[in-house]
Amino acid sequence: MKIKYLFLLFFIFPICLGSYAQSGFGMLSGRIVNADQQPVTGASVSLEKTKLGTVTASDGQFSLKGITPGSYIISISNVGYTAFSQNILISKGKNPFLDLQLSESKQQLDEVVVSTTKNRYQVLTSSASTRTGTPLLSTPQSVQVMSSQVLRDRQAFTLNEIAGSFTGMKANNGNGNFQIRGFSAYSPNDASFLLYNGIRGNLFLWSQQPLLYNIESVELLRGPSGALFSEGSPGGVINFVTKKPLQERQASVDLSLGSWGFGRASVDFTGPVSSQKKLLYRAIIGFDRTESFRDYQKKKNLFLAPSLTYLISKNTSLNLELNYAYQKAVQQYDNGSYIYTRTDGTFDFQRYPNNLTIQSPTDYGKTHNASATLTFEHQINNQLKLTVVERAVRNVLDFTDHIPVGRIRNDSISRGFQDWETDRFSLQTTAFATYTTKTGPLGHQIVAGADYNRYGWTQNDYQYKPSTRISILNPDYSGSIPDASVPSDESDDNKRVTNLIGAYIQDQVSVGSKFKVLLSLRHDRYDGKETPLSDRDNKQGDELQASGWIPRVGLVYLPVRNVSVYGTYLKSFNPQTSNNVLSGGPFPTRKATQYEVGSKAELFSSRLSATLSIYQINYANILTAAPTEENSHRQAAIDGTRSRGGEFSVVGNLNNVSLIAGYAFNEHELVSTSTYGKKGDRFANAPKHQVNFWGKYSLPFRGLKGLGIAAGIRYVSDQVGLLTNQNFIFPSYTVMDAALSYQRGRYQLQINAYNLANKHYFTGSRSGVTLAGLGDPLNVRVGLRYQLW
């Protein structure tokens, strides 16, 4: 599909949508429920700056009549819940019935769902995109949210397993490496690629698949988001919304079994500590173990997530969340499967069996990940709210691994040995205030804040040594661990501290009920220093000083109440991962600039959400090798790349059908010729076309109530595996999944089958043509969930 057709579709899309109007005043009715779909009784519901208000009945329902059509702020509050307010448009006549769900944090409305369906796929607000709870319809950015129901229906236990359900996103391999809008999002290079409740500090290392034990929903904010979060992937960032303590007493147990010896168990307990319900707790404990379709690979995870919320008053709360994740693995890194290079330079992706691996049975990884997050929120008055967050993360890794050296010859390969111990940390302080006011006819939602992040490592002990050559089909692993007396070919032994200080201000301006303008400006300053700890360190020191302004401008126009058209200009900058003077540093900062236009709609009484977006991202100052006779290690910053394309996605619930579907088109290529590649070369792991679909049908028939049938499909077109070899192209692939579920009372039984056709396909490469990420063959999971109370 050519980009010009996407532009044509963009202009046609809002015209084809409509709304209706009735004479007289407006009428609004709805129902307020909690996270367990139980009615919230006695909640106050009012339209600010009017005398219209009511309280919810025993069934959680409310009704307001005699409303003059226009734009209002609806406010909802209840004992134990922080007051929440949100813009709402009232039309003449009867407006759609609102099914409002209070979030588990009890501090704000997590979602506004115009639907009577209990098991929701659709989410209409994002907790992170603007930090103001703005409806996605009025947010000038492409944002997609995976609800807890989608995670359950997919039996997705890691970010890798849910990535393909996002439009235009995929996992490149079995580690923490993903593709969004043509860019690779990878933790070492993008410190804030993964956010937790909108705060920097990734809990997991790049060798791991992020776990979802304590995750309520997953948000994808497409494009550079530096105005709020500082550095991140140019293609987008992921925000995890974690599960919070509840005021209602609940407990559940989940058990899962699957292919390759997979087993998983978790418990989730929450409720009040005392009868006053001022102190709330939540405890999540999980354990899983699995082997693999590859030889020798094994993995165990232990996950603990206790949390406490103290409701100091109805306007003030304090939340403490602790996370601990321990992983023990044989071959922690997923180095992928072999690819054979033919004599004519083409590649055979089918030559070697799935089970083979370049790693040795002695390779291992032991990881201790821990985090603590303290969040203070205070609603000073109806207009002003203060939030202060402290987050600390520590990652300790002890790891050995084997990697390929050179090409495969005569079905054998030379290998290198890596031995790595590292101790990493991140200390983040975030404080921001949200203020709502008016200046004449203009409404303002102002967010002003500051960040201080101190991160780096106290130990980074890495050694690389040559290892043995093995026969691929009949490997002999004896002697594969080099003797300690063998000198290292490459070695790091250093510590590093980087200090980031940032400040920002954002104003969401409402011009009547149809126009909204988003203006943001941020300034960041980085100051980092790397210090060698011994003579073994190759770089012998590195320093980083960088600063810059990051603007963001967005415009939203709502021609009718359920359709919006938007445009946005976004920027971000990332400090270079290397500024060593021995390599030619310091280097200019990597910069991303995005231009995006789009349209959003809420259809069928707002039960279905649709988004169309078209974008271009310019990425500059990428480092590439530029050796000279005097300096073989010299690097240089080049003009960079350009990624452009479009996305269309729909999500929602229509009667007994829940669905997620989307199509993404992307062209990511170099804009100049250098040692990095030729102008027009395709970027690695960036397919031009991606299609995703997942649908679930809940049978309404008597005797079959509680039974659900689901199916899904993912299509990824061919993709270049290595920028420096444009002939290294992974074939396109189509993967089909299916599921059956049955819920009765407190029990829910689910069976998921993945890759039904047992398709052999490669998902992406890392750094060469010898190995690449291989998609999982046919596998099955059976899950049982029991609600204790």
From TrEMBL:
Residues 136-237 form the TonB-dependent receptor plug domain. Keywords: Cell outer membrane, Ion transport, Iron, Iron transport, Membrane, Receptor, Signal, TonB box, Transmembrane, Transmembrane beta strand, Transport. GO terms for biological process: siderophore transport. The keyword Heme does not apply. Residues 315-756 form the TonB-dependent receptor-like beta-barrel domain. GO terms for cellular component: cell outer membrane. Pfam families: CarbopepD_reg_2, Plug, TonB_dep_Rec_b-barrel. Its main location: membrane. One of its GO terms (molecular function) is signaling receptor activity. It is found in: Cell outer membrane. Gene3D superfamilies: Carboxypeptidase-like, regulatory domain, TonB-dependent receptor, beta-barrel domain, TonB-dependent receptor, plug domain. It is a multi-pass membrane protein. InterPro entries: Beta-barrel_TonB, Beta-barrel_TonB_sf, CarboxyPept-like_regulatory, Plug_dom, Plug_dom_sf, TonB-dep_rcpt-like, TonB_sidphr_rcpt. Belongs to the TonB-dependent receptor family. This is Iron complex outermembrane recepter protein. It comes from Dyadobacter koreensis.
